[in-house]
Amino acid sequence: MKLRVLIVDDEPLARERLRMLLASEPEAEVVGEGADGEAAVAAIRSLHPDLVMLDIQMPGLDGFGVLRALERAELPLVIFVTAFDQHAVKAFEAHALDYLLKPCKPARLRDALQRAREQLASKQSQNVSQRLLDLLEERSPKAAQHLTRIAVKNGERVTFVKAAHIDWIEASGNYVVLHVGKESHIIRETIGALEEQLSPDTFLRLSRSAIVNLDRVKELQSVAPGEHVVILHDGKKLPMSRGLREVEEKLKFG
To answer: What structural domains and CATH numbers belong to the chain?
Structure first.
């Protein structure tokens, strides 16, 4: 019996590469693809794949968010696919969970598929589900750990910006720009790492490159079919790739 595989990645080229690699694996069959987290959740529930090749860094609902959205009984076998993220990789290894680094190598993929088949054959999927739950619990943000101030270095001086005063945060490679009123502060941190340290009750990741302070949002506006922007009180417009309904709910209850 072939291993039924679902590919989830927001990058079309990454999905295409995985699809091509899996096409050369006679014991694997791609049963579907997802380009974002919400589509992934729906596909897992409707297709019931044996295995999900799951990207971690996706706009809106990321890979961990996909797993949190599922009930325990719905959790599939997962091979995480990620650009090199030292913290994530260490977490996967600590919980004996499989992962592939982009760009995926054929031999490494073949080994991961073989382990997945062995887990299914030996009925170890429940053990894997528990390891997934342990990982999610470990990575769940805890209220006591949310940043209330962010250190900003300027020459020999270090100043502290209150998180509540930030309007929005912009990604710039391995740096982020904190937009605070008319001021901007650059710090060396990835947007994903900073997002994990901020309160989800106050901040929301709108896209791969922007996090917004929900208290600064004035309105949502449609700019094209299926495309929306967030408008801040100062008039700044931020494109969003997150689902409209999810953002509306967050604004109502966040």
So the answer is: 3-139 (3.40.50.2300), 144-253 (2.40.50.1020)
